[in-house]
Write a structure and sequence with these properties.
Blueprint (H helix, E strand, L loop, with lengths): L1 H8 L4 H23 L7 H35 L4 H16 L2
Length: about 100
């Protein structure tokens, strides 16, 4: 996805850079924490450091979700799709996701 963003928006695109940095942090969390940094979890300071890093990853994930949602809405609006229709489709998708 990062490669596609850079291709579409340019090599120095800030969104692609943010996504790339996020992917690096996510990779650390999922694949490297236990292998490379496991012992940091054994003391309070290390545990707090890891917890803060996970919270930072979580906040950036939430921000990126909102950013991509806004970009997608802007794209659909540029295609002439009404905001009302976009909102309606979004509500239907949320019902499917949350099984409401």
């Amino acid at each position: 996805m990062v490669g596609q963003l850079r291709k579409a928006r340019g090599e120095n695109d800030l969104i692609a850079q943010r996504l790339s940095a996020f992917v690096d942090q996510r990779t650390w969390l999922v694949h490297k924490l236990r292998r490379d940094n496991y012992l940091t979890l054994r003391d309070d300071a290390g545990f707090r450091e890891v917890t803060l890093r996970v919270e930072t990853i979580t906040l950036e994930a939430e921000r990126l979700i909102e950013l991509f949602d806004n970009l997608l809405v802007e794209h659909f609006l540029s295609l002439g799709i009404s905001k009302e229709h976009i909102d309606q489709e979004q509500r239907k998708a949320e019902k499917d996701v949350y099984r409401e």
